[in-house]
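Could you join me in thinking about how sequence relates to backbone shape in a protein? To get us started, please write out a protein record for me. Would you write everything just below, so we can both look at the same thing?
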Amino acid sequence: MWTRRGALAGAGALAACAPARGHVAGQDDPRFAAIEARVGGRVGVYALNTADGAVLSHRGDERFAMCSTFKWLLAAGVFYYAARGGLRDGPHRSPQLSDPVRFDESAIVPYSPRVQENLARGWMSVEELCEATVTISDNAAANLLLDTMLGPAGFVHFVRATGDEVTRLDRLEPALNENLPGDPRDTTTPAAMAQTMRRLLIGDGLLSAAAREKLLGWMIASPTGLSRLRAGLPEGWRAGDKTGTSDGANNATNDVMIAWPPGQPPIFITCYLSHSTAPMADRATPRTRRSRASSLRVGAKRVAWWACFACGENFPLEIEGELRLCGFYTTRYVEAPDKQSAAAMAAEILFADPDLALPEGVEPHPEQRIYFEGVEEVEEAEPEPGFAFFPMEEAFS
């Protein structure tokens, strides 16, 4: 079965085989056209082989909603300004990495597990927020970091300083995931993102060696992309990435990656899939379906299928025309190297599910959460059930 994730894995496999020096694959490349025909929507890909400058591109200069793929760049911006004494605007000064950022329950937005864990403490360091933003894609952490940079405008100021005149951010999480057709807000192009990754992650003096090492370490450790671009790489490659996801009619399934072939300089691959007609449910990619015994290796990581038995609490939902505070039970199947990573990936998928979307104008409940009653390794994914909803007032009366 072809899924959105399968499309990314297939695109990654093609992009990893970057063409000869100076060649650029055109818009009519039949390999990418075949992927688009199977999953619907638009696929944008740009791959840059830094060993020889070879480029492979399909819709490389078209705009796509970034969703959470901007978060590695946000962390890079924090490192950039910290090394230069902070971003200053009148009395405002962005903090250093060890400085605390204080928050309360008003900071919580859908999918904010690390910030939620620290609500009682009431603060996290700037570096802790960066790690949560890149590694597990914590949305509240990203918003708190954006606040230290004067919001999306400060982020764009940094992006322009890197030489990227294309990438733009206009809103906070979760509004930036809207992905309306033709809307330029919160977008980039595959080409612009890949070139910005090259400038920041391997050279040009924009980040210190220590900052690059830390940022790359977080991207490599992130579990959210193990079944996306990384799943299409040849065995033995090392990779780090940042995914982005939005579901519903205006869906987006994205991944941006740095990958190292054995003994070779890195290849940058950016892939954006927008408005696909394929379902979002976690299904095996064409590559992983061949491994039915949970023994797949992506790069140097062993990846297994996990069944994640989820319970949600305090979700404001519209039920039969009435706003109710609801809980739910469901199961999600994900590929991950360990139980903790599987739970993090499943939580991200659930928070992006349109069935859990907040009604317009409704704020998330301060005690809204998802937890897992069990996470078990299984041989392969099974068809996923829907949600079993229950009213919270009855469940806890």
Observations:
- The chain has two domains: 4-274, 290-395.
